[in-house]
Specification:
single chain, alpha/beta, Rossmann fold, 14-stranded mixed sheet, 4-stranded parallel sheet, 20 strands, disordered C terminus
């Protein structure tokens, strides 16, 4: 029997492996590691948009057309000069892996040996030949964007360079004292080969469907058929040579004659009849890029309108449709694609379809998102949490090794919500999770002072650990994401092990009740009249355990307590504990233990009062552009 034919190993796509930022926007210094497809999560102003902008400065082929490419506000804290007046440059370093063969051959002298096992370059100072003797050694291309204030030009300049090797430069060289001294320019043609595309979802309507440089339509023109070189020239000629000419309109001919006769007295005009004339346009190529717009007809109106008059959701769907076309033009897995918040103006099913498409068709997808529907499509190993403090940006991947893969699969939706939250309450089980959420809403409703803020409004997610023994293991897991975590569980039936105690120590607050079960807690701490209300409400419930009996007409306190205990235990995990909490109508009716826990969480996670909080606190960094169209639900079935 012949052995099966050997299958060729699939070609790995070109990807960004590492990004280092210095002095850019809100980041004084920071590093982000990318391991293929990456989902960037984090709070507002954490730096997610800054990361995408930094990648565009290095790799974006059209970014160089902007003048200036950077400005005063792009420098951290606005410092583009130090106290002595010396330039404080923006430095952005990117490491690319998996260069196509032809690209690697041509740029081999610009590449350096890299190993993920060793965590970086292998040719650092002091390295010996044996250091490259690792299985995963490969060639990496290091690039650097340098942006700075040029005092001589009194302007800001910037460009991307090969950051290796650094050449010796003589003192009389004009670039001797410049931040990019010794570096070789990384031109636009090389950038085009990288296939980097950056889509700012919120700011789509302004440019993406126009013909401005770097727009999606311009990208399609650039990647598409030949003939685009003469397109603008041909268009301008047609505008200037309309037949009949604009000046042949009778009313305008009369004006031309009057102007020619009057001006001829003072200005030496040509004696030709066309010494004056009206033309359709004096537009230049750049003018045309600005004014030419795509018109569309919706199925409802059947009347063509400029694309930006459609709803935001429809515009974003069109943008995504163009992206699929660009992916086809570039070839499968040939694009490094960065996108901000695909959930903007799109319903959940469309968010998921977009995420699936990007992960399947792009060489590398780098996405920022606040949507659990987007994060759910990513392998948790691809989720990177971004934090920023005092200008220092850091990134942390989820340590999936701390929890079994089966547990991660079973809890994908819960994990998606928890990863996006400011804080996480890990509850022992379903009963406790539902009970805490119900108590949080009831607390808000009965708090006459209006000071209590429920869990969801302070950004705290409640996570069901499914069992008491599972509570410890989730603490270290969420700790790797820099989440503020709280544990809520019953008194254990047997003492915690040393490793469990260590894991519980990772929680900001490890709250252990004095009861062996939530049912005992509710029976002991809910007033008897509240338990009675609960039993009366539960009696009409479709899932009420009829075999446990009902209250008598005038039940004693012990009868109420005993029946409540039986019902709660029998319907554990069914939401009956939450139903009992919902019967509380005053603050002093809430269980003391639960109220104490909620108060601790609230104090730890408190946000500024809405009465005093500046409106701009939650605005993500960016270029400030945005669309004002109302949100529109759309269906992408016909597009994808």
């Amino acid at each position: 029997m012949l052995p099966p034919p050997e299958q060729e190993e699939p070609i790995k796509p070109l990807v960004v492996r590492r990004l280092e930022i210095t002095n850019f926007r809100g980041v004084k210094k920071g590093t982000v590691e990318f391991h293929g497809d990456t989902l960037l999560v984090g709070g507002n102003n954490a730096g997610k948009s800054t990361i995408c902008e930094a990648l565009e400065l290095v790799l974006g082929p059209e970014r160089g057309y902007r003048r200036p490419i950077v400005n005063e506000h792009d420098f951290h804290a606005g410092r583009y000069l130090d106290d002595e007046g010396n330039p404080q440059p923006i430095l952005i370093d990117v490491v690319l892996l998996n260069l196509p063969d032809e690209m690697e051959k041509k740029l081999f002298s610009k590449t350096r040996p890299w190993s993920d096992t060793k965590g970086g370059f292998l040719d650092i100072d002091g390295a010996v030949p044996e250091d490259t003797d690792v299985d995963d050694v490969c060639r990496a291309l290091p690039l650097k964007f340098v942006g700075y204030y040029d005092r001589q030009e009194d302007d800001f300049v910037g460009a991307t360079y090969f950051s290796h090797p650094v050449e010796e430069v003589a003192e009389d060289d004009e670039n001797f004292d410049k931040p990019q001294t010794g570096l070789t320019f990384f031109n636009r043609e090389w950038k085009l080969r990288c296939g980097f595309i950056y889509l700012r979802t919120l700011r789509t309507g302004r440019r993406a469907l126009s013909l401005q440089r770097g727009s999606l339509l311009d990208t399609i023109l650039r990647l598409g058929d030949t003939g685009k070189e003469s397109m603008w020239e041909s268009t301008l000629k047609q505008l200037s040579s309309l037949d009949p000419a604009i000046g042949d309109i009778p009313q305008l001919e009369s004006i031309q004659d009057q102007v020619r006769d009057r001006m001829g007295r003072f200005v030496g005009l040509s004696h030709d009849d066309d010494a004056t004339g009206f033309f359709a346009s004096d537009l230049t190529r750049d003018n045309l890029r600005e004014v030419v717009q795509l018109f569309l007809k919706s199925s409802e109106s059947n009347h063509p309108v400029p694309f930006d008059r459609l709803g935001t959701g429809s515009v974003n769907a069109l943008v995504f449709a163009l992206l699929t076309h660009i992916a086809d033009l570039r070839g499968s897995n040939a694009i490094i694609f960065a996108m901000e918040e695909p959930e903007i103006a799109l319903p959940p099913h469309a968010q998921r379809r977009i995420a699936k498409y990007l992960l399947r068709n792009m060489g590398q997808a780098i996405i920022t998102s606040h949507s659990p529907y987007v994060i759910e499509e990513f392998d948790l190993k691809a989720v990177t949490s971004i934090t920023r403090k005092d200008g220092e940006l850091s990134s942390d991947r989820i340590d999936v090794d701390k929890v079994k893969a089966s547990a991660l699969r079973m809890n994908r939706r819960q994990l998606a919500e928890a990863v996006l939250a400011r804080g996480v309450v890990v509850a022992e089980g379903d009963t406790e999770a539902k009970m805490l959420l119900a108590a949080s809403y009831v607390y808000e409703a009965v708090d006459t002072t209006g000071k209590y803020v429920p869990l969801d409004l302070i950004g705290v997610s409640v996570f069901d650990a499914t069992s008491q023994s599972s509570v410890p293991k989730w603490g270290p897991f969420f700790e790797t994401l820099n989440k503020v975590t709280f544990a809520f569980h019953d008194k254990p039936k047997k003492a915690w092990t040393e490793s469990q105690q260590e894991a519980l120590g990772t929680y900001q607050i490890n709250f252990e009740s004095d009861y062996s079960g939530s049912e005992e807690l509710l029976v002991a701490e809910l007033p008897n009249h509240v338990l009675k209300r609960f039993l009366e409400a539960a009696a009409s419930h479709a899932e009420y355990p009829t075999d446990k009996g009902y209250l008598s007409n005038e039940p004693s306190e012990s009868e109420v307590s005993e029946l409540a205990r039986k019902v709660l235990f029998h319907k554990k995990g069914s939401g009956f504990a939450a139903l009992a909490i919902e019967q509380c109508q005053a603050l002093d009716e809430l269980p003391v233990t639960i109220k104490e826990f909620l108060d601790q969480v609230g104090a730890t996670m408190a946000l500024p009062s809405l009465d005093t909080e500046p409106e701009s606190d939650d605005i993500e960094e960016g270029d400030g552009e945005g669309d004002d169209d109302p949100l529109a639900d759309i269906d992408l079935d016909d597009i994808l």
